[in-house]
Amino acid sequence: MKKVLFATTALVASAGFAAAEITFSGYGEMGVVGGGDNSTGFSDGETQFHNDLMLKFSATTETDMGITVGVSTEIQKAEGEANGNFAADNTAMFISGAFGTLTMGEIDGAMDFRLTENIGNPGTIGDDETIHAGYLGGYGDGAYDNQILRYDYNFGDFGFSASMELDDTGALDDGYALGVSYKTSMTGVDIGLGLAYQTFEQDGTYLPGNIDNFTVATPFAAGDVDVWGVSATADFQNGFVAGLAYSDWNFPGAVDADHIGLSMGYSINAWSFGVNWGQFDVDTVGKIKGYGLAVAYDLGGGASVHLGYGDSDGPTGVIADDVETWSFGVAMSF
Fold first, then answer.
1. What is the mean pLDDT of residues 232-251?
2. Which residues does UniProt assign to the signal peptide (predicted)?
3. Contact criterion met (CB below 8 Å) for 23 and 59
4. Hey, which of 9, 98, 190, 279 would disulfide with 235, CB 3.0 to 4.6 Å?
């Protein structure tokens, strides 16, 4: 997911019995993307022009009982296409009150919501820092129809989430997740901790993280998958942030996997720098890893210049040689 800050424009619309606050935001991108001979991503290794546009619509209202109800969706042009088709994405609706928040739609499950896999990322126009082979941005979310129901409740510095995703075919068990988080401060450093669990069933074709973008072969047997994960982040209040995430994947049969990810970021004046590294250790396969770099310079007025690079590495037969991506361009948020 792109790390681009949005500006917002808010309207208040009166319709019938309620007044709804409507917010519009979005971003645009233009630049150049490329990579090595065997690169994944938007360019497939060829140097190409890149442009993108995303519009986000959000609306909220409050009932007579003080309950907040809201809906949001993103309208995005197909990336890299000069005249790409527009499609709705990440559509969700929520209900929030003293009882907590209930959200349904194309959203993060409880595990992904409570764990932090990447911190300090200023973003790139080519997503180079999040499409390398070592990156893990989800924990089984979207294994079925990508419609998730999640409940969140925060009390003080503690947070709790529970989620489920139904298998519409009836052939597989439904997916469930639980997650908790805690925020504290020690000697001037803000600390964030997360612990979570996810379970779902897969048909023998599932691959975690970005591995499926590099190979279609899977060593994992069909059946129930159990995932445990922890994360820790630190904000040193001097422009420097760092994070660590670890997850253990238990598949049916003799082949399991684990993943570790490290991320760091630094901001000074108009400059922002981010780097992340990740590695999957898969039984009988070996280590699949990669890293990403992102640099941004804030031009003011919602515009910024972005430079990105990603590199992937793994065992022969799993990942080809020279798997790298890069991008350079300008982004505008509004």
1. 98
2. 1-20
3. yes
4. 190
| Nearest-angstrom CA–CA distance, 93 and 137 | 22
**pLDDT per residue over 277-330, tens digit each?**
999 999 988 999 999 999 999 999 999 999 999 999 988 877 766 689 999 999
Does the domain at residues 9-333 carry the CATH identifier 2.40.160.10? yes
Q: Distance between CA 239 and CA 185 in Å, rounded?
A: 16
Q: CB under 8 Å to 170, separation ≥6 — which residues?
A: none
Neighbours of 24 (CB within 10 A): 15
List the chain domain ranges: 9-333
Alpha carbon 3 to its chain centroid, in Å, reads 9
Note the pLDDT tens digit of each residue in 269-292: 999 999 999 999 999 889 999 999
The residues, ordered by sequence, that sit 6+ positions from 73 with a Cβ below 8 Å of its Cβ are 56, 57, 88, 89, 90, 91, 92
Nearest CA-CA partner of 139 in 74, 86, 207: 207
- Joined together, the tokens standing for residue 79 give 């990336």
Amino acid at 48: Q
Q: How far apart are CA 261 and CA 246, in angstroms?
A: 6
Q: What is the pTM of this model?
A: 0.90
